[in-house]
Amino acid sequence: METFTKVSVVKKANVYFDGKVTSRTVIFEDGEKKTLGIMLPGDYEFGTAAKEIMEILGGSMDVLLPESSEWLTVNEGQSFEVPANSKFKLKVKELADYCCSYINE
User: Fold this and answer.
1) Which pTM does this prediction carry?
2) Nearest Cα to 35, choosing from 17, 47, 21?
3) Which domain holds residue 95?
4) I want to staple 82 with a disulfide (CB 3.0 to 4.6 A). Which of 20, 25, 52, 68 is the partner?
5) Which Enzyme Commission number(s) are listed (predicted)?
C-alpha cells in the first residue's frame, strides 16, 4: 500500500536514541496502529509488546532477531517479523525509512 487513507496521526513524534530514530504513529479507523519513521546509521536494540512487522521502505539494515545467532540483511522492499514480548537488534549502515505494523493477536 503506497498511501494510507482515513487515518489519524499523532502529532508528537516518537524519538529514540538521542534523535537518531524517529517515527510518527498512524491510527486506522479499525484501531490498527502503524509507525512511519527514519533511522540514522547506528546500532540499536528495541523491545516489543505486540508482534511487529517491519517493512523497509528505503535503505537497508542488519537485524538480529530473538533466539537467532545470525544477522540478517534486510533491504528496501523487504520486511521482517518480530514476536511479541521480545527484543531485537539492528545495525543501520545508511539512512533507513521504515513502516512498523503492530499486530495484536
Assistant:
1) 0.93
2) 21
3) 7-103
4) 52
5) 2.4.2.1, 2.4.2.2
